[in-house]
Structures are given as structure tokens and as C-alpha cells.
Amino acid sequence: MSMSAYEEIMLALRFFFDVEEDENVNEIIGQDHDPIGTIAAALDDYRSVGDEANIPASQRSNQK
After folding, report:
1. Into how many domains does the chain fold?
2. Is residue 36 one of the residues assigned to a domain?
3. Based on the number of CB atoms within 10 Å of its own CB, is 16 exposed (0-12), middle (13-18) or buried (19 or more)?
4. Per-residue pLDDT tens digits for 28-45
């Protein structure tokens, strides 16, 4: 079964911001001046790394 769009977006944003809780994502996005642009960038980034998306940013070899 595939995940919903909401689930994929939240996973992408947690990956992008290197946070573990949805509440943290909501707080960050709520303060963003271009939330749609940030969500799109996060989703593109998340999709481009494949399995590496499960590795916290602090442990990735190519830090942002």
C-alpha cells in the first residue's frame, strides 16, 4: 500500500528540517514566508535521495 500525499509530505519535511515530530514541522512551516516553495523543495530533496531519506541529516555524508 502506498502512503498518502500528506504522509509523504510530512516525511519529506521531517527529512528536510531534520526533525522527528510533526509539531516541529508545523511550527517551522507556519513561520515560513513561502511555505509552498519550501514544501516543494523538501519533497524534491526527499525523492532524490531514496533510501538515504531514512538517515538523519546529522549522519548524512552530504550535509546541507
Report:
1. 1
2. yes
3. buried
4. 999 999 999 999 999 999
Supply the pTM of this predicted model: 0.75
Give the contacts of 13 (CB within 8 A, at least 6 positions apart).
Answer: 25, 28, 29, 38, 39, 42
The boundaries of the domain holding residue 38 are 5-57
Cβ(41)–Cβ(16) below 8 Å? yes
**In a domain? residue 62:** no
Rounded to an integer, what distance in angstroms lies between the CA atom of residue 28 and that of residue 47?
Answer: 20
Domain-located, residue 22? yes
Neighbours of 40 (CB within 10 A): 13
